[in-house]
Amino acid sequence: MIQSYKRKYKTEDHYDVIMIGSGIGCLSAAAILSKEGKKVLVLERHYTAGGFTHVFKRRGYEWDVGIHYIGEVQRKNSAIRLLFDYITDSKLKWADMGSVYDRVIIGNKKYDFVKGVKNFKNKLVEYFPDQETSIKNYIDLIFSSNKATGKFYLSKVLPSFIDKILGRFMRREYLKYSNQTTYDVLSKIIKNDQLIKVLTAQYGDYGLPPKQSSFAMHASVVKHYFDGGSFPVGGSSRILETIDPVIERSSGTILVSAEVKQIVVKKNKAVGVLMSDGKEFYANKIVSGTGVFNTYEKLIPSEMCKKYNLTPRLNEIKPSVSHGCLYIGLNGSPEDLNLPKNNLWIYPDKGSHDQCVEDYLNDIDAPFPLVYISFPSSKDPTWNKRYPGKSTIDVITLLPYETFSQWEGTKWMKRGSDYDQLKEKISKRLLECLFDKIPDLRDKIDHYELSSPLTTKNFVNYKKGELYGIDHNPERFNQVFLKPKTEIKNFFLTGQDIVTAGVGGALFSGLLTASAVSGKNLLNRIKKSSNS
């Protein structure tokens, strides 16, 4: 059972591993290590655990803050499904979203992304009949890039002396793709600007438009959804609910409202953590899943940063995009309101993705460069039993942190009338985007509230309220220090910063970190367990 640090709680005298943060990277690593017989303590500063997998409830509704759809889990032998099954004892179930998982809307034109590689290709050829060869070449490149992924990430858990010999060769093939921008790659094989705009319409899943994003990141997301999208049955809170018993079974503990102030380092060895109230916990190994900026700028003693010259490394990367999400509650069931399961990606008719983003960043009142609409209540088959006669919608867009920086340091829900007025203005614009596509919803809205980058910073503790950790540009994938094992003995990293964006990337980071902590090839063990 998850306990609160602010109430009477029970912990073990000593743990094998302490996890700082309870995002899916830490939860994944904690569950895997628990199955290796390790006692794990997970410390979460927020009053609820789960990171971007947690839910919040208000006014008789429930919203998932970070999970909108997951790919590849319908294939029982896929790596992501095997890993989810392993860390949840196969208790987490998935609902398929159907044949269409994403609908791209550019101006008045609609393009469906359909389940299955062949179906995906054929549908695109319907839209662009003179581009069949280019579409085929594009799909081939997606698979080629992803084929090089395995060796690249395996190099992140090699012992240092082996990495010096083999690491460069293991990364080389992947870097051929990651060192190019998405636009660089696509513009060589596709001469139709509209097709490029359609193919890169999921850039919101990793945060950067085509001329800034790494093609390898783009390819990873595209392939991830080739087999369609799925949603956790019972909502995304089921992820934590099914992982917690696995951790608890090995005498592990998850503590919420438990803020770590600093990692305790003695003689270049991490030995424990200092809490914000002065209490200390000790363990053989310490893992941070709070992101590299938080970890190295706040949690590591300053002399360690100087010793290992960490500041210049951090200067080579930057926080990813910040966002806002409008959480909407509606009167009526998803069936009554005829809500779809597929997501909507809405873009301006004119201009490339990069140009639209640039115009918007220069003028917040310019058209939104991207509006993403998700219908979580439609995706969960248990929703009507849990919330009869109600529905929810999430509407997400880019929101620059700088637009809200003047309220930095103010308290959540108490930031003042000017802040509230700005949020209301943005909320109204986003509602109009929704009504433009589904006008029948105009009189069905019961409640709505907008999260800003400051909201994300408050709850997830990212530096600028970023959604995906650090930017997924070409430079990011050349940073060799973004790996589980650090130069401080017995101290490790996990989370999307050491793999890639999103729940899938963070999930696999947990596997890499658990492997580095244990010194074992745990992927093989997970594969074998699925056959037993």
DSSP helix fraction: 25-40%
Radius of gyration: 22 Å
Which structural class best describes the helix and strand composition? alpha/beta
- CA-based shape: globular
Largest sheet, in brief, is:
8 strands, mixed
What is the CATH superfamily classification of the domain at 3-53 and 73-92 and 234-316 and 479-531?
Answer: FAD/NAD(P)-binding domain
Question: Runs with pLDDT <50, length 5+?
Answer: none
Give the overall average pLDDT. 94
What's the CATH class label of the domain at 3-53 and 73-92 and 234-316 and 479-531? Alpha Beta
Number of helices: 20
Strand content: 15-25%
Instruction: Examine the coordinates and then state which fold CATH places here, giving the name of the CATH topology of the domain at 3-53 and 73-92 and 234-316 and 479-531.
Output: FAD/NAD(P)-binding domain
Instruction: Please state the second-level CATH architecture of the domain at 3-53 and 73-92 and 234-316 and 479-531.
Output: 3-Layer(bba) Sandwich
Annotation, overall tally of beta strands: 20
Distance between the termini: 28 Å
